[in-house]
Amino acid sequence: MGSIHRILPVALLGFGLSACDKSEYLSPEVVLETENGQVSCQLYTTDRLYWDEATAYPETMTKSEADAYCKAAGRERKDAAATQV
């Protein structure tokens, strides 16, 4: 009985996250020029920075490095939007 109490919350969380449709939060794709080459980023709305990710990047770069560039671009976009208000 104890293990079901540990598994159920995790299962519910997983189901809830899988039901989330990211497409309604999409922004136009952004291409960044880096010292290692171009990184294509899929950015989402400014309140969804944790979803920002690289969709294409140079072979000399890891996915996590490319994602870091995209997340930085998302933060810059959010900061720019905040200063326009």
Q: What is the domain tally? A: 1
Tell me the fraction of residues in β-strands, as a range: 15-25%
**Total helical segments:** 2
Largest sheet: 3 strands, antiparallel
Record the strand order, biggest sheet.
1-2-3
Textual characterization of the structure:
The protein is of the alpha+beta class and 85 residues long. The chain has one domain. Helix content is 45%, strand content 18%. It has 2 helices and 3 strands, in the order H-E-E-E-H. The protein has helices spanning 2-18, 63-83, and strands at 30-34, 37-42, 53-56.
Layout of helices and strands, plus pairs?
Blueprint: H1 2-18, E1 30-34, E2 37-42, E3 53-56, H2 63-83
Antiparallel strand pairs: 1-2, 2-3
How would you sum up this structure in a few lines?
The chain is an alpha+beta fold and 85 residues long. The protein has one domain (23-83). Helix content is 45%, strand content 18%.
Please give a handful of descriptors for the protein shown.
85 residues; alpha+beta; 3-stranded antiparallel β-sheet; 2 helices; 45% helix; 18% strand
